[in-house]
Write a structure and sequence with these properties.
alpha+beta; Phosphatase 2c, domain 1; 6-stranded mixed β-sheet; 5-stranded antiparallel β-sheet
């Protein structure tokens, strides 16, 4: 039994290494946007996904997603979602966000044999016009902070992988210099301490508002520091992904 356990552990470790190769190694360098990320997996396999896709010299695609469930099935679905997004951005000439999310939804509904679904946000940042075109498939709504006031990016529809013919809405947001865009997965806001208190989105938003002049790296460091203080040694129970983008 111990040999079998060692084999499983070894295979999980290899799967985790393969999975980590799918995630960006560096933050993208694009005019007018400063981007920083923090990714803390829970266990060897993750259900969180984030990526940055250079579409041309003015447009960059960004995705943050979270697969329901945990373990190997979730990790496989995460990798499938990543591959589907990458494959469809290459023939998406009008940079439509809803087309990408619709493709992910169709693929999961047609081919996935699990009961898991995916919450996903896909956006396209344009550095020339300072715009964000996006579709949100049931993901925790990213927040844009403008002069310290936050508003949510919710346009889209239900999570991918539930109803094959779902029509996803798409929205175009005009950005302004000094806007901050906060993207996150539920592990960042649903973390619970020993008193059974939840960290919560309101707390994260207050941190950003109090540190509005900070750069993205400083903001992420403050959020993670406050989260660590809040947990006070309570073990992490989910993957945590945080992305902060500042418009220059």
């Amino acid at each position: 039994q111990s040999i079998e356990k060692q084999r499983i552990e070894r295979e999980l470790s290899i799967a985790g290494e393969v999975q980590s190769e799918l995630l960006p190694k560096v933050n993208p360098n694009i005019d007018r946007f400063e981007i920083k990320t923090k990714f803390l997996p829970y266990g060897q396999l993750s259900g969180d996904l984030y990526d940055f896709i250079e579409l041309d010299d003015k447009n960059i695609g960004l995705v943050i997603a979270d697969v329901s469930g945990k373990g190997i099935p979730s990790a496989i679905l995460m990798a499938t979602t990543h591959a589907t997004i990458r494959a469809n951005t290459s023939n998406n000439d009008d940079f439509s966000a809803s087309k990408i999310i619709s493709a992910v939804n169709r693929y999961i509904c047609e081919y996935s044999r699990t009961t898991e679904f995916v919450t996903a946000f896909y956006g396209v940042l344009n550095s020339e016009n300072l715009t964000l075109r996006y579709t949100n498939a049931g993901h925790n709504p990213p927040v844009i902070f403008r002069e310290g006031v936050g508003f949510f990016l919710e346009a889209g529809g239900i999570p991918a992988g539930i109803i094959k013919d779902t029509q996803y809405a798409e929205e175009l947001i005009e950005l302004m210099p000094d806007d901050i865009i906060l993207l996150y997965t539920d592990g960042a806001i649903e973390a619970v301490n020993s008193k059974k208190e939840m960290f919560g989105l309101r707390r994260v938003m207050q941190i950003v508002q109090k540190n509005y002049k900070a750069n993205p790296e400083e903001l992420i460091d403050v959020i993670y520091s406050k989260l660590s203080d809040f947990l006070d040694g309570t073990p992490q129970s989910d993957d945590i992904t945080i992305i902060v983008i500042k418009v220059k």
